[in-house]
Amino acid sequence: MKSFYKYIAATILILIMNTGCPAEPKLTKSIVFELGGESGKSDSSSVIISDITKVDKTIAIIKERLHSYGIANKIERNTETNDYTLWLPEKIIDNAVKNLISTTGKIELWETWDISSQELPSPQDSVYRYIMTPRYNASFFLVNKGEMAQARQLLMSYAAEKQWPQNIKYVWGKKPAYGKGDMYELYMLRSMHPVQTPVITNEHIKKAFSEQSYGHWSIEIELNATGSSRFAKATRENIGKALAIVIDNKVYSAPTVQSAIEGGRLQIAGNFTKAEVDEYASILMYEALPLSVTIKE
Question: Which residues form the SecDF P1 head subdomain domain (predicted)?
Fold first, then answer.
């Protein structure tokens, strides 16, 4: 009889354990990708990978992003083809996964130049007046999509001729101006130092998460102590001016500073969906990818 009760007790324990520990999802869906050279380099696809540390770090960051987004995964290296297979549960949205594994995720906060400032004299040549539409009391020009390359080349020539300061960094807006049409914003970023140095980078981020307010989704970022100090200084010194939030060399937002911000919290607002802010929160929580990722069809 005692053995019978022991059997019943063991059976109940097994059932409780099985109920409390759901089975791992089956990873049957696959995406193949390859690693290139350093992220952000124009010739990254042709660089031969020899730095194993960067390879391991890139793979580790990809796995962390996916886990943060709630996606179980496994990554295997294909030694014959020198690429990687990412295994996922079957019911996973492809676009979200592709963004999570291929977005470099390099975030920067920059001070900006005020175009109407006396520090930036407006060139008077006809080419400038034709292709550039300066937005006074703002940090950007409006440029037609078909003239973007010409506009950038023109501005670079002004810097080369020393008509403008040397520490100007030109960066395009992520989306068309006002969310539609063929006009794009070309921002003029400035550094806290003589060399091109942003106020905030990935190393200053403590936490990133999505948040909804008044029906609009945003990406909220909490900064560490160093980042909070740098952010507070930048906001104190730029009241009435814009600070540009740049992700992977595109301006996502450039809010005008109304007052000094001491709390160490940064918001990226825009016309985002919940899916977009969830993806970017998972991406920005971690370091930028050291190596570029190309998804193979």
Answer: 196-290
What mean pLDDT comes out for the span 182-191? 86
Q: How many CB atoms lie within 10 A of CB 139?
A: 26
Cα gap 74→94, rounded to integer Å:
16
| Among candidate residues 275, 282, 259, 277, the one with its CA nearest the CA of residue 267 | 277
Count Cβ atoms within 10 A of the Cβ of residue 56 and give its class: 0-12 exposed, 13-18 middle, 19 or more buried: exposed
- Give yes or no for a contact between 158 and 164, defined as CB atoms under 8 angstroms apart: yes
Class of domain 24-102: alpha beta
Note the pTM of the prediction, 2 decimals: 0.79
Cβ 162 vs Cβ 239: under 8 Å: no
Nearest C-alpha neighbor of 41 from the set 31, 52, 54: 54
Q: Hey, which residues does 253 pair with through a beta bridge?
A: 245
- For residue 201 the two structure tokens come to 């980078």
Which residue, 140, 196, 148, is CA-closest to 168? 196
Six-digit token string for 169: 């960094």
100-147 confidence digits (pLDDT tens): 999 999 999 999 988 766 666 666 555 565 566 666 557 788 888 888
- Give CA–CA dist 138/254, Å, rounded: 10
Provide the CATH number for the domain formed by 107-111+193-285 in this structure. 3.30.1360.200
